[in-house]
Amino acid sequence: xxxxIRQPAHAPVTHLFADDGRIPNNPTLPLVLYRxxxxxxxxxxxxxxxxxxxxxxxWGDMWRNGIYPYVHYHSMIHEAMAIARxxxxxxxxxxxxxxxxxIAGDVVVLPAGTGHQxxxxxxxxxxxxxxxxxxKYNLCRGTKAEHAKTPAxxxxxxxxxxxxxxxxxGPLLTLWQA
Length: 178
Hints:
Layout: E1 13-15, E2 31-34, H1 46-56, E3 60-65, E4 79-85, E5 87-92, E6 98-103, E7 107-110, E8 116-121, E9 126-131, H2 144-156, H3 171-175
């Protein structure tokens, strides 16, 4: 069994990715990673614990699944993902981005435009995703036509009112100040 070294839950790790010509990423808002952002120790149903956390913090339109194996992004909405079970190696930011190993309890908050792609995962991987109430879901695959329209769309996405893991006082709101 692998053991991960974790930072305190309120010590976010941030990454700001440049536009690579295919994946726009977000020019001003960083990806935020909370290691052990949701405490799953002793939880018989980690999926429900994550869903309840997201819902209590105003994030909805939830899904349970994995992470697509192709690079994609959302240009009109921010996204939160939490690992309920298993682990995954995910490349964030497109081809020139960063590969990050995420494990159960980790929460990743992706600002609109941030590329993400699952490179590998354990068979038991379960990811819970959620979105803030403002914005509109869309799936972009990095075509030239999409990329040409995306910067204007990203600028229009409103900031969320709450942090999906820590609510209205969470670090996300400070990190994403307008």
